[in-house]
Design brief:
Blueprint (H helix, E strand, L loop, with lengths): L7 H16 L4 H8 L3 H9 L6 H11 L3 H11 L7
Helix pairs in contact: 1-5, 2-3
């Protein structure tokens, strides 16, 4: 499997983040205000243009109100077994 930012795992992560945010009743601007960042950063994360690390996932989980381990399980299930770093 070729390394790509649009891997199945990355797409699943983006989808899970958007789903969690909308389920929480937050818009991108609302989330950006909670994170003290620009709305464009939230948009880049959600669209897959910017990857996030594990610490950022924890921060997002706290701001939105979801369990980071549940999102990790979704990403793990979607990630190909032969995906390379």
């Amino acid at each position: 499997m070729a390394k790509t930012i649009r891997s199945k795992g990355q797409v699943a992560l983006c989808r899970a983040l958007v789903d969690a945010r909308t389920k929480a009743g937050l818009g991108q601007e609302d989330l950006a205000a909670k994170l003290n960042c620009h709305q464009s950063l939230v948009a880049r994360i959600e669209s897959g243009q910017r990857r996030i690390d594990v610490v950022e996932l924890v921060v997002l989980a706290r701001a939105i109100g979801f369990d980071a381990s549940e999102v990790l399980a979704i990403v793990a299930a979607a990630t190909e077994p032969d995906h390379r770093i």
